[in-house]
UniProtKB/TrEMBL annotation:
It is found in: Membrane. The keyword Transmembrane helix applies. It is a multi-pass membrane protein. Belongs to the major facilitator superfamily. Sugar transporter (TC 2.A.1.1) family. SUPFAM superfamilies: MFS general substrate transporter. This is MFS family transporter: sugar.
Length: 502
């Protein structure tokens, strides 16, 4: 569809709230970690478990979110998961902190993570289905911008006497979840989901709600219809997204694994799984979770921020600022420069940034360590952090989307949980070598992208997914359709609809 024919405000709004709770949790637990260590008497291993528990919940939430968005739609599912999990998780973590119960704290964070993981599946799927081709990259990258916004908000709450406001800070995710849930519930539903449910009139109404004119509505309905018929789905007895929650949950878990192993889209699933592991195993969130602890260790300050201000959390705030700048740069470039160049440059630059951090940590220099981590986060956030979500929204057809994205997102959170759980022990045992290990992962990511990830910018979703099935390597170009070919395709779709009585 030609850019500018309808609005993308609904997709931007969904994306800008989709990662808010994820970023908020990452920065919040990092900021209050010294206070939790004192309150709960946490060892290094227990500290890793408490931090990683939210991502373990996110791995489960990914499958729950996939099942809900298939059975109940995108907006309502995101709203329900955000509201329920943020309220339950916040109450549990607050009560556990008051009781000094580390196990309860971990379980409460699992509950928070379930909601975060569910929305992390729903938001990219929604954005990929509802945004225009020319804006799909920037809309998808806005998901990562919302992660930054959540991080910045939570980090600011921990600058001043976090030990004196621990209960308020722990309960704050419930407030954030409440307002996010309202916006999700008011969002325009995905026309593709409505179509698959057999509600063609609802799909038309949803498109009109985005500001599409009559011609654009008919054009997109024709494209959806052609895609559904190609998959053997439609109004002639084919199976659409009409399964209930439990059936959808089973299909999301078992179906995702089956698709990865032997399905038509196994190549796309496997590439996305590898991207998910590389995304988290370079310590992309661990350096924010544990940033203040790293700087406190360098400064040989064992206090739990008993003063009026926690300067170490402010250092982490600088890292978050760099992440925000990087994501903003990615939004500006992802559709014009392309996905591959950003991934290649960003992953390589991320590795060099971690090498600088290694030097700073070995030299006991807070300044050089902070500079290296800022360089790492700036490069990573302008590439892997945001482009990953863009690719996830593009690689899979509607047939495999819910199960594939669930598996990929669960892998992302599981990898993040592993990185978060081992980071404290690595810092304690090998010190500066920790950053070398993660730098090697970044350089491996560069090689992986060069060999296997194709360019998808400005390509129709159908073309991208066909290229994935054909097995094109990263250095093999997906040929862009010319405007003439694009117009011809639209005419052909229209003729097909008329011929079939659509």
């Amino acid at each position: 569809m030609a850019p500018g024919r309808r609005g993308n405000a609904h997709a931007y709004r969904f994306a800008l709230l989709g990662g808010l709770s994820l970023g908020y949790d990452v920065a919040l637990v990092g900021g209050i970690l010294p206070t939790l260590e004192r309150t709960l008497a946490l060892s290094a291993a227990a500290r890793g478990v408490v931090v990683a528990s939210a991502k373990l919940g996110g791995a489960l939430g990914a499958f729950v979110g996939a099942a809900l968005m298939r059975s109940h739609g995108r907006g309502r599912s995101a709203s329900a998961m955000t509201l329920a999990c943020s309220a339950c998780g916040s109450a549990a973590t607050w009560a556990s902190a008051e009781a000094g119960d580390a196990t309860g704290m971990a379980l409460g964070r699992v509950a928070l993570g379930v909601g975060v993981g569910g929305v992390a599946v729903i938001a990219p799927a929604y954005c990929g289905e509802t945004s225009e081709v020319g804006a799909r990259g920037s809309v998808g990258a806005c998901f990562e911008l919302s992660v930054c916004a959540g991080m910045a908000l939570a980090n600011a709450l921990t600058w001043f006497s976090p030990q004196k406001t621990l209960g308020l800070v722990l309960f704050s995710p419930a407030v954030l979840g409440f307002w996010s849930a309202i916006v999700f519930a008011m969002s325009v539903e995905s026309p593709r989901w409505l179509f698959r449910r057999g509600d063609e009139n609802g799909a038309r109404d949803a498109l009109r709600a985005t500001g599409a004119d009559a011609a654009t509505v008919e054009e997109e309905i024709g494209e959806i219809l052609a895609e559904e018929r190609a998959l053997g789905i439609g109004f002639d007895g084919g199976a659409g997204d009409d399964a209930g929650f439990w059936r959808s949950f089973v299909e999301s878990t078992v179906g995702g694994v089956r698709e990865a192993m032997s399905g038509d889209e196994r190549r796309a699933v496997r590439l996305a799984l590898a991207m998910a592991v590389l995304n988290q195993m370079c310590a992309s969130t661990s350096v924010i979770n544990y940033g203040s602890s790293v700087f406190r260790r360098l400064a040989n300050d064992a206090s739990a921020s008993n003063g009026d201000m926690d300067v170490y959390n402010m250092y982490t705030g600088v890292i978050i600022l760099c992440k925000t700048v990087g994501v903003a740069a990615s939004i500006a470039m992802v559709d014009s420069v392309g996905r591959r160049p950003l991934l290649l440059f960003g992953s390589a630059a991320s590795g060099f940034g971690l090498c600088v951090a290694c030097f700073g940590y070995a030299a006991k220099s807070v300044g050089w360590t902070l500079f290296g981590l800022c360089a790492f986060i700036l490069a990573f956030s302008s590439s892997f952090a945001s482009v990953f979500w863009v690719l996830v929204s593009e690689l899979f057809s509607m047939r495999a989307k819910s199960s594939a994205i669930a598996l990929v997102t669960a892998t992302l959170f599981a990898s993040g949980a592993l990185s978060d759980s081992i980071f404290p022990s690595m810092i304690s045992t090998i010190g500066a070598g920790t950053f070398v290990v993660y730098a090697i992962v970044c350089f491996a990511s560069t090689t992986f992208v060069y060999l296997y990830i194709p360019e998808t910018a400005r390509k129709p979703l159908k073309e991208i997914q066909s290229a994935m099935k054909s097995g094109l390597s990263g250095y093999a170009e997906i040929h862009a359709s010319s405007e003439h070919e694009d117009r011809g395709t639209r005419v052909e779709l229209a003729v097909t609809r008329d011929t079939n009585g659509g």
